[in-house]
Every structure is written in C-alpha cells, then in structure tokens.
Amino acid sequence: MPLRLLKYAWKKSEDEPRFFPDEKPLKKAYDVVIIGGGGHGMACAYYLAKEHGITNVAVLEQGYIGGGNTGRNTTIVRSNYLTSEGVKFYDESLKLFEDLSDDFDLNIFYSTRGHFTLAHTDSAMRTMRWRAEVNKHHGIDSEVVDVETIQKEVPYMDMSCNGQHPVMGALYHAPGSVARHDAVAWGYARGAQQRGVEIHQKTRVTDIKTKGGKVVGVETDRGFVEAKKVISMVAGSTPRITEMLEIETPIEIFPLQACVTEPVKPFMDTIVVSGSLHVYVSQSSRGELVMGASVDPAELHSTRSTLDFVEGLTDQMMDLFPFTSRLKIMRQWAGMSDITPDFAPIMGKTDVEGFYLDAGWGTWGFKATPISGKTMAYTVANDTPHELIKPFSLSRYTDFKLVGEKGAASVGH
Amino acid sequence: MKFVTCPSLGRRALSEFTYGGRLEKEPDQESVSEKAWTDYVFYRNGAPQTLKEWWYHRPTGIWFLFERNTLTDRITRVEFANRGIENEA
C-alpha cells in the first residue's frame, strides 16, 4: 500500500482516469432512449447493457447525473412494506443494494442500521402488527417491539414525547439501512458507460414522436433522436412527459422537503420514523441528523423550500429528541414526488407501443433504485412486464386492482 | 410565509388554510360509464397548469375556491365557494 501511495504522489492529475469519460456526440438513432439520468435511469441502462446485451442506449438528462430526486431524498433503504406485492419488490431491491459496492468497485457507504417505525396510537400499533405479519410471511426480518426495547436502542429519545403522544411500541426492521445516494447513481452511470451506454447531460426531451401508435423517437433541445423504444424514468417530471403522448395517469406532484442539522457526535445508530408525527431521522456518517417529514399540502411543480416545513418538523423533533433544540439546521431542500392514489409505483408498458413508464415513486423511490432498473430493463428487453412489477401496471386503476400501500409509507400524507 | 388576499377577510397567511383538492365535476351517478367514473376518480392531467381548487379557512370555517398555478404557486383568484353545490355538479 505505501508503495502505491508513493506512486500516486508522483502522478499528475491528468494521468488519472476521469470517473466519467468525455461525452460522445449525440447520435441520430438508438435502440433505447431513457429519459431521466437519475438512479432509476442509470440502473436501467446498467442492467440493459449488463444482463441483456443492449448497449445502443442513450440516457438523456435535462440537468446533470443524479441532480433530481436522486440527490434529494433521505437515503433510507427498507422492505417492511404492507402489501405482498410491495414487500417482494422492495426486498429484492434491498438484496441488490447489499452487493452494489462490490458490483461497482465503488463504496456506496451502505450501512445497515435497523429501522424503528414508532406507533403512538392503538390504530398505529395495529398497522405495525399487520406489517410485521405480512413481512414474516415473506421471510423478512420485522417484528413489533415494546417501549423498553426501543428505549434501550435509542436512549436519547423521550418516549413520552413531551407528554403529548407517548410511544406505545414500534415495528422493528433489522435490515433497514442507509446508503450514499449520489454514489448509487454514479456507480450505475459509470457501470453503464463502461459497457457502451451513452449519457447525455443537459439534454432536455421536448416531445415524443409516434407513427401509427408506435414510438419513433424523441425531440430534444439538441435535435431529433430516433429510438425504437423510449422509457420515461423522470419521477417528479412524469406528467410533463406523459402529456406529450396524451397518456392519462393518476399522478399528482407534491414537493417533499428534507433538511440536515450541523454534525454532532455519533449517538444514534438506528433509523427512527414516526408516521403519526411525520418525522423520519437518521444520523449520517458525517454526524448530521438527516430529517424529513410529510409532503407539502398542495400540488406544486417546484423544489423551493419553506419556513413552514422547518417549523413543523423541528416542533415534532423536539418532542422526540428534546436536545435537538440546541442544533442548527444547515441545509434544506425539496424534491418533487409523483404521488399515486394507492401509494404504489406505476411501472411497465403503456398503450403506446415502445413507450415504457417507470413512475409514481412518490416518497419511496430511492430504495427501489436497483430493482426498478433491473425489472424495467427486463421489461424493455423482452417487451413483457417482469413478474415482480405486474401488479404495478398503469391499467390497475381502470381494473380497480389497486395496491394499497399507504399504511407502509414512512410519512403520513 | 405566504399570504392570500381574501374577499372580506383581507390579507391572511396561507397556513390558516387547508387544501381541499381540485374542483372537479362529478359525473351523474345514474348514467355514468365505468370509464368516465375511473377518469373522475383516478385519472387527471398532473402537468403544470392553472387549477381551480378548494381551500378551507380553518379559523372561520369558510370554504374558498382559489385559482392557482401549480408551476409558479401564484394564486390569481380567490372567491367564496358559497355556491358549493352549483360548483360541484
């Protein structure tokens, strides 16, 4: 190791290979165009190339890699969902996450913490019991724990919540983890590029062209690009894309805000979530408390931050962790959540031939990054929906086959 | 803090209001087709646009209809929803 370090010291910066190679010029035609260069888009490109040998792929991103919702979430990974469909899907994702650092040869700072979802009411306790039973049925490590167990794990928490809404118990999910969100997007992007995929940043799709009900290409602010298949993986911008093809979805956009405090000494290993208080919090490896709450109350296509959010969140945080009244908020931001009525995603084929949709990620998109990429790559390569995502088709609303996942959302909506 | 100028109440903080969703025409339940019903219940154009929305003023218990742009968050029109049934049907 010291010798390698010495060699490194003599190198000039230009001798080091860049993480991402230079962008190639935009070609006239691709087999597959992926709209959106976030985690999902990059993961889909990666698995298309790695598992299906489809490398004539362009990822078109209006901003920069991982600059949208991928960089705006609170990095929590878990699979303690409520419906069988959700549990199976997110558990596969969690398993993929565990191996990503090795797959990419890049540290994604995947850290298993254990995940408490607190219950402050009888009805919340019932939902926790329900989730624990569904989870166990699918072989997932989830159990309802009592107040003493929580207090032992999270000693700084006020279990009476300032006497306002005492904690009655929690759903404990041992595999609950956090990961560095940027690294996930970068790892997938580099892996895809190494296999021949082109990533074009600052390239906005302005229209999608069809001929006889079939996709033929996309119009961009850098000219027309032919494509046999087009996948939209843009989360918060989904309605703007589906509007181009006059596809109606139940998606509405709500801002989801989050913030971090100044760094403090490590005191909390676990992730703590309270659906009733609209709080979720974990301590990053830098020592900051990463905190989020529920989505903003009204539809809005914007990533602006508000004072109302910080006031509301810190009010609840101080009930749970009284000492946080002394901490400073360092940064605050918002992402755009594409919320569906049943709080489950919309994935798979659409009525337009060659156009695929990966949307409706609401407040739960980051944890689905690997499995969404993998199942969408399968769906596109075989032109048939992957088994795991069949329940998430857009037509489920017309068929009244909803996947009711609201009870397992981390936050109240 | 965001403010709204209401008829009669004057300038009020938006935080006094609760969002009540889009103003939408409910189809006639006797004659509605399944397609029209799912359209009404689920499907909508979620792209940025100017919407007419229900907003409830908690301190007075009065419902309002706002005209609001979902891209700029600008509220361009505020009116009483006192013709509620008329607006709904």
Automatic annotation (TrEMBL), chain A:
Keyword Oxidoreductase: yes
Top-level taxon of the source organism: Bacteria
Record-annotated membrane-spanning stretches: none
One MF annotation (Gene Ontology) recorded for this entry: oxidoreductase activity
Gene3D superfamilies named in the record: D-Amino Acid Oxidase, subunit A, domain 2 (3.30.9.10), FAD/NAD(P)-binding domain (3.50.50.60)
Name of this protein: FAD-dependent oxidoreductase
UniProt domain Rhodanese: residue ranges: 2-76
One GO location term (cellular component): cytoplasm
InterPro entries in alphabetical order: FAD-dep_OxRdtase (IPR006076), FAD/NAD-bd_sf (IPR036188), Rhodanese-like_dom (IPR001763)
PROSITE patterns, sorted: RHODANESE_3 (PS50206)
Protein keywords: Oxidoreductase
From TrEMBL, chain B:
BP terms from Gene Ontology: tetrahydrofolate metabolic process
Gene Ontology terms for molecular function: sarcosine oxidase activity
UniProt-recorded name of the protein: Sarcosine oxidase subunit delta
Annotated signal peptide: none
InterPro entries from the UniProt entry: SoxD, SoxD_sf
Protein species of origin: Thiomicrorhabdus xiamenensis
Origin: domain of life: Bacteria
